Amino acid sequence: MRYYSHTNSLFIRGPFRAASTGMAGGIRSVPTLLVHAIPADSDPADREKTLDRIIAGEGLDQIFFGATSTVPVRHTCVLQYDFITVFISAGIGPEPSDPGRGIIIIVVSSQELDDAALLETIMVTAEAKVEALQAMNLSLSGTPADVIIAAGESGGDTGHRSAGRDTEAGRRVRAAVLHGIPKAIRRHDAPATEDRPAFFIFSRFKGDHWVEWTPEKCPYYPCHFKGQSCDFCYCPFYPCHDETLGQWAVGSNGNRVWNCAKCRLLHEPEVAAYFKQYPGASRQELMAFAKTLKR
């Protein structure tokens, strides 16, 4: 999986088997998941066509799952918990008719999810969303604009036939949604001034709790080398499985995990700047660009 923002859109790319409750939803294999930010006064009838235009403009395959949101893409919260990554775009206005209302949640597993597990992921996500809203004393279970997309990367060496709330996948999804919903709503209500997304990373280095990463307060700098770029602290290509950049290691639960602690690719300032200028660049393109810097 990799993800990037461009043209008021969040693109999530990978070989996915996915399920969606949104426009043209269902269950199928797709290479792209998309959230596009639209003006609050946009014509609802035109939103599906808008997504088609965005995909075509990026030169991507027209097979995709997507959703529109009035929440700016830069306010998306990204939560990573082991093999689960959750993207949350959420805004709750003060009135039921407020055009800023809507919660978009995309759950991506780097491990395969069977079709039944995809549907269970949607169920767990919806349940956790309601629980999070109630904990905020919000008297609603969601909005008519809400969309949930669940996806698992195809071709992995680990698969899940179930993703209920008591499974490894379900527990991680539920924890991410419970933590992310209030963070995303508060970020929308009182938006930060910076343009980068908010990253909430579940860290076992500091115990079982959520840690918000910001470059200004990072306790690990420099984790690679002095003068490194931290714009992509949590790599959008992870796990790339490219053994010229990283290696397999044994995790705390005994499973194989991808370790990229020695990878410098996106920490090289010139490469990071190139990727920010060309967010659609592939990992191979960035590696080729990095080689030109060493000549």
Features of the shown structure:
2 domains, 5 helices, 295 residues, L-amino peptidase D-ALA esterase/amidase, two-stranded parallel ribbon, alpha/beta, 14 strands
Structure overview:
The structure is a single chain. With 295 residues, the protein is of the alpha/beta class. It has 2 domains: 2-213, L-amino peptidase D-ALA esterase/amidase; 218-295, no CATH class. 25% of the residues lie in helices and 29% in strands. The protein has 5 helices and 14 strands. Strands 1, 2, 3, 4, 5, 6, 7, 9, 11 and 12 form a 10-stranded mixed sheet that branches. The protein has a two-stranded parallel sheet with strand order 8-10. Helix 2 crosses helix 3 (168-189). It is globular and about 55 Å long. The chain starts with a strand and ends with a helix. The mean pLDDT is 85.
Question: Which secondary structure elements does this structure contain, and how are they paired or packed?
Answer:
Elements: E1 2-6, E2 9-20, E3 26-37, H1 47-57, E4 64-69, E5 77-81, E6 84-91, E7 102-109, E8 112-113, H2 115-135, E9 147-153, E10 159-160, H3 168-189, E11 198-203, E12 209-213, E13 247-250, E14 256-259, H4 269-277, H5 283-293
Parallel strand pairs: 3-4, 5-11, 7-9, 8-10
Antiparallel strand pairs: 1-2, 2-3, 2-9, 5-6, 6-7, 11-12, 13-14
Helix pairs in contact: 2-3, 4-5
Q: How would you concisely characterize the structure shown here?
A:
The protein has 295 residues and is an alpha/beta fold. It has two domains: 2-213, L-amino peptidase D-ALA esterase/amidase, CATH 3.60.70; 218-295, no CATH class.
